[in-house]
Design brief:
By secondary structure, the chain is mainly α. The chain folds into two domains: about 80 residues, no CATH class; about 100 residues, Arc Repressor Mutant, subunit A. It is built from ten helices and no strands.
Amino acid sequence: MKHNYIEDYESLVGYISNEYAKRYRMVDRQDIRQELWLWFASRPNKVKDWYENYQQKDRDKLIGRSLRNAALKFCTKEKAKSAGYEVQDNFYYEPQIIEEFLPYILTDSYMLPIGVNDVNYKPDRNAVAESNTWLAVRADISTAYEALEERHQNVLRLRFTSLNTTLEDVGAELQISADAARKRVDRAVRAIIDELGGKRPYVETDYGV
């Protein structure tokens, strides 16, 4: 059975193209659209499987996530090209790094967060502790925090101003459950990552390739 993904996802492709064209103004919106349609064309097995084995709601989520990843990967590459650097030179901020720095930023401390030297860090995280790089990371995260909406700043202050604060404490203050508090904290941390350029694109191939 042939599936008309162009008709089904024209609106989503347009929406995501506009979204990333606003974030990466050096990239043409039509070029992003073309890249997103290329994602469908280059992954026929995956698209077929998702059409045949997933309900529309779940399929839409899978395709939406993949299209955003494709847009991010393309825009990141184009931004690097226009600015004259290599994509691999990008530093991507992970949630753990944000959460480790926030208590120090919110209490105006310039100590090096203990977790930055954790042996379980990936190589690009180890670089944070080298020389004065961690100070630049702290400055980046602090600037991104100041750019957040008040609702995000508030939940992060509640969670990270004191190292002894639990999610239960945050939930009690906001009159919500601890699980709902965790979700709000996660959204606020993701908002910081978005301010810092977004998450790392993941490699995606077609099924059977």
